[in-house]
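Bench notes, afternoon.
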Amino acid sequence: MHAMTHQAAAARADLLDIVFANRNRAYGAYQLRRTYPDALARALGGGFFLIATFFAAVHLLAASKDAHPDDPEGTIITFDRKPTFESKPLPKPVLSKPAAPARRTLAFLPPIVAPDDNVPEVADLPTQEDLAKTSAEVGAKTQDGTTDGPPDLTNLIPTGTGSGTGSGGGDDETVYDMGGVHKPPYFPGGEKELLEYIAKHIKYPAAARESGITGPVVVSFVVNTDGSASDIAVLKDPGGGCGKEVIRVVSSMPKWVPGESNGHPVRVRFYLPVRFELD
């Protein structure tokens, strides 16, 4: 038997050596094929052993039942279910009486008797007739007030930074800003007429046109109490005679409607921007 097994193993070993003659024997397939017969033998032996053990256990159980014919169901174990302690009834709850609601009490003080000399005199209260008569007299006559005049608001009126005599006929020679008067001056017909007048009368200076000079010109002037313009000053000038041209047009403007403060004509400084552009 052993000789045949060794011969079979030798034959298989020779066959594996022939198959893996020119191959890598360290590869897993070579090892699996070499150990396969031994692994199969161990698996079959283990299976037969488990089957034999199962049948032996069944045989032993059957033999144990035959040894006790009076107790076919086996031994039954019972337990005493009686409690080891005694139950006591719970004590009855003690109910307390609710507290009575609090009641408001009034303390009555006894009157104090005092002599008449210590009792203060009570002034006589006016009657309904007296009150009606007093209400009827309200507004029936003029009450005398204070003789002081109205407060002086001279220091509260904002004034301008400029000054000048001007050609106006008013007594106030102060020059106000546009925001310091109740009624600012304006060109006859309004702002639209002012723009049309400037566009119609102004001329682009030849020097500025030839040099390609463009930009805004800002002038300031004082509108006097008679509406005439004075104290003309150029604040911004791009050059080329543009500032002089604006001064010429402002000087030739008709009289404005003067500004007013507290109902009186006053001198007001006005700022006028004019922009020169080439087509």
